[in-house]
Amino acid sequence: MIITSLQDRAWKYISAMPPSTQGASGHTAIFNVARTLTKGFSLPSPEAFALLARWNETKAFPPWSDSDLRHKLEDAAKASAPEGYLLKNDDRRQTTGSAIKAPASLAKAPAARRGYGAADLVAKATVQAKWPIPRHLTGPEKGAFARLRNLPLAAVDIGCQNARIMADDSRPGCVLLTDGRTDGRGHRQYRNLDGSPFHHGEKSDNAKGSSGKGFFSLNHSRRLDPEEMVFITEGTISLFEAVACQWLCEGKARRWHFLAAHFCGSTFAAETALLKAIAGHHVRVMPDPNEAGMKAARAWRDELQAVGCTVDRAKMPKGFQDLRVILAAGSDGVAAARSILTYPTPSKLGGDK
Predict the structure, then answer these.
(1) Can you spell out the DSSP letters for 47-82?
(2) Final residue of a structural domain among 206, 241, 257
(3) Of the candidates 243, 265, 264, which has an alpha carbon nearest to the alpha carbon of residue 253?
(4) Is residue 294, in this structure, part of any structural domain at all?
(5) Block means of pLDDT (10 residues each) for the chain, length 353 residues?
(6) Which one of 11, 118, 188, 314 is most buried, counting C-beta atoms within 10 A?
(7) Which of these three, 206, 241, 273, is where a domain ends?
(8) Are strands 188-192 and 174-178 parallel, antiparallel or unpaired?
(9) Domain total for the chain?
(10) 189 with 249, same domain?
(11) Within this chain, do residues 275 and 191 fall inside the same structural domain, yes or no?
(12) Does the predicted model carry a pTM greater than 0.85?
């Protein structure tokens, strides 16, 4: 049996969390650490302050003052996150002092999932500033994209109205999926309207300088309603497939806010403002049904639970492999779409297992 102190566990956890960098959501980063210590591990104020001060020395640029650290801990203690949410899998059997049995599935945030530092964002923003200005799709282009992905025209119109589905005259014959950002977190992906692959053999082609670690949504800056829930899919184009499923369900799924991970390596550490916006909400994750997808879903779950979210996992109905298959089924896919967008029951609000 491996015995470790609660403080040691907490330190290992926060050591892997994103740094606090001035000009790059540094306030959010250090607040998340403070909340992890006070709410996640339920540490007393003196112990939480000692660990936060230690983290501050090497992970804050520039470091925060002791007064600021105390204010962060006071604010974090008032957060709505569940008390001891990082301890809920413990058996709580005490040994000596504050030592406890280390859980086998301690949530960690690996270094590879930290996102982008300030210097990386500046470099990407320089490239993104040179991206061509996109234009709106013509009617025939909308129709071609709808046929390409089995999307109802209404869903394509929603994407176009939110400037997420565009065209780039420097890439004729393509549709452009873009989040409109050029701050280093921007993402642009091209798809051939005839469905043919690009020169590298893939059916999608990300613009040079695109962010590969973030999430795609109809509106990154929108504030969520208190009762609104979040639905996460994998793959940029799946955003519009999820929107189409919601449209098929008419008004029954209006409380879902959809996010699409650019790929399975996406991390909320690269989307600190987005993570703050959805903190405390219920989140449903629908990963790709493979090992990489399941690993990604577990990593997102850990990041989301660290900010007080409850998380469950959507399962595809029998006979449907993904959202595109549901849409291709036409009216026969409506029941399947409704099943994955059904509101969570109280018994499922405790999070994904």
Answers:
(1) HHHHHHHHHHHHHEESPPPHHHHHHHHHHHHTS-SP
(2) 206
(3) 243
(4) yes
(5) 66 83 76 89 90 89 89 86 71 34 36 61 91 95 94 93 95 95 92 93 93 87 82 93 87 76 88 87 88 89 91 87 87 87 61 42
(6) 188
(7) 206
(8) antiparallel
(9) 3
(10) no
(11) no
(12) no
